Amino acid sequence: RQPLRVVVDSNASAVRPGARVLDGSAPTLVAVAEDADAAHLEGLVPVVRLPRAPGGRGLSIPMLLRTLYEREVRSVLLEGGATLAGAFVAARSVDQVVGYLAPALLGAGPAVLADAGIGTITDALRLDVTGVDRLGPDLRITAVPGGPAPAAAPAPAPATSAVPASEEN
Description:
Layout: E1 5-8, E2 28-33, E3 47-50, H1 61-70, H2 82-90, E4 97-101, E5 127-135, E6 138-145
Parallel strand pairs: 1-2, 2-3
Antiparallel strand pairs: 4-6, 5-6
């Protein structure tokens, strides 16, 4: 069975006529907000209209998943950017995370998650690692939500010098 490509385009502004995602190479569905002007997509691709998420940003993730389920979609591979990933995490609609770790340090870059409703380490979505695979020099880490919250850290010991006595000036 051919996977269904789903484009989440809240404002119906990212997918324009002639876009590669409309090339017919795979079944495609575009999800837009109920109040979005999607007239330019009519006749080009199936469009589903959904309510906006609370706060008006993005689409209701539970409604998106319900709509996909009604279309017999039973598994979703999320390949969106930080905003969509953050929306799925905020909606607690993630059941597996696959991440890649390369042995390289960068000074800056895009965030993995945008506003996911996680403001503190206490609020973090804890994960249980279920697999680690080496891919050349990189690692693929697979995890599922549900890891325990961190235990309370013991009170720190009084500050002491980190320099051994023999190295002091």
